[in-house]
Amino acid sequence: MRSTRSRKALTATAALALTFTMAACGAGNEGGDSSSGEGGDASSAAGTIKGAGASSMEKAQNEWIAKFTEEAPDATVEYAPDGSGTGREKFINGAVNFAGTDSAMDDEEIASAKEKGCTGETIQFPVYVSPIAVAYNLKDVEDLNLSAPVIADIFSGKIKKWNDPKIAADNKGVDLPDTKITPVNRSDESGTSKNFSAYLSEAAADNWKHEPEDVWPIKGGEAAKGTSGVVDTIGAGEGNIGYADASQIGDLKAAKIKAGDEFIEYSPDAAAKILESAKRVDESSKTNYAVELDRGNAGEGVYPVVLVSYAVACSDYEDKEVANTVKSYLEYAVSEDGQKASAEAAGSAPLSEAATKNATDALGQIKTD
């Protein structure tokens, strides 16, 4: 079965380092040692810090919190998987000390945060990389191939039945049922929605005319809150199809996605390859490590539907105990141990040495004294 094969692929490839060719940028203050397996010094972390954001990285955050607080028993870390949009909003308003988001903060959001919750500089960097699965519920179809134009037509409502000729053309020999297709999307503001829509707009521009946004642009299917809500809704109805972080689809089956001339099964390794051509949005910044992906020109062996999630923090906190604990916690998250924990718990692709250095350089901007 495909789902079994994918779980094996996730386990087998999770230990492979992510080749992330962003140029490293030096920071004014040095953070933790980017070559360290254990991250920053957690022993001095204390007090409570709060975070909120992407539900896609909920498993990773839970694992990081568990492992970090083993080493820092005087610290409490809370993370609410409210969705990327809510996480950014809470950070901007100073309701949380850090955020997780599947969409990087834009210039307007960063400026707003400086006026409200983060009087210093907003720091953001990739912390979690994972494929987005196109999961479906067809009990008698174990393997399914889908191209970007077909996926776009499914989610825009142009393709309404599973035995549509456009689907059948890429699935020779597969007995596709005359079953209604019900697309499932996120009801809340979601970076997963934005990343998925960005893939469609880049890889199927003639079929998908919607700008990538955190709010899903189309009505008519079924909407569910959070990653778990989407997964549950897909599983609840024959003929349903949706998108979700691959680590959280459980026993649902997922389509192979066309890239170039082949159909690619998701795996951390295949997803990581798309980042080889990623470029930083602002090469000169010491705090903003957001990247741009080229989803429309995925090369051989590349799984093109990818989620890059960011950690967001502030360079200057009023409470230095909070500053120290935020810095220590996020240093752990990007450390070798933290990324290994995420890979084992959520099937994510560990960050490369270069990406880890970028993160620790950014975290070095946090003032702790």
TrEMBL record:
<dbReference type="Pfam" id="PF12849">
    <property type="entry name" value="PBP_like_2"/>
</dbReference>
<feature type="compositionally biased region" description="Low complexity">
    <location>
        <begin position="27"/>
        <end position="47"/>
    </location>
</feature>
<dbReference type="GO" id="GO:0042301">
    <property type="term" value="F:phosphate ion binding"/>
</dbReference>
<keyword id="KW-0813">Transport</keyword>
<dbReference type="GO" id="GO:0043190">
    <property type="term" value="C:ATP-binding cassette (ABC) transporter complex"/>
</dbReference>
<keyword id="KW-0732">Signal</keyword>
<protein>
    <recommendedName>
        <fullName>Phosphate-binding protein</fullName>
    </recommendedName>
</protein>
<feature type="signal peptide">
    <location>
        <begin position="1"/>
        <end position="23"/>
    </location>
</feature>
<feature type="region of interest" description="Disordered">
    <location>
        <begin position="344"/>
        <end position="369"/>
    </location>
</feature>
<feature type="region of interest" description="Disordered">
    <location>
        <begin position="27"/>
        <end position="55"/>
    </location>
</feature>
<dbReference type="InterPro" id="IPR050962">
    <property type="entry name" value="Phosphate-bind_PstS"/>
</dbReference>
<dbReference type="InterPro" id="IPR005673">
    <property type="entry name" value="ABC_phos-bd_PstS"/>
</dbReference>
<dbReference type="InterPro" id="IPR024370">
    <property type="entry name" value="PBP_domain"/>
</dbReference>
<dbReference type="GO" id="GO:0035435">
    <property type="term" value="P:phosphate ion transmembrane transport"/>
</dbReference>
<comment type="similarity">
    <text>Belongs to the PstS family.</text>
</comment>
<feature type="domain" description="PBP">
    <location>
        <begin position="44"/>
        <end position="336"/>
    </location>
</feature>
<keyword id="KW-0592">Phosphate transport</keyword>
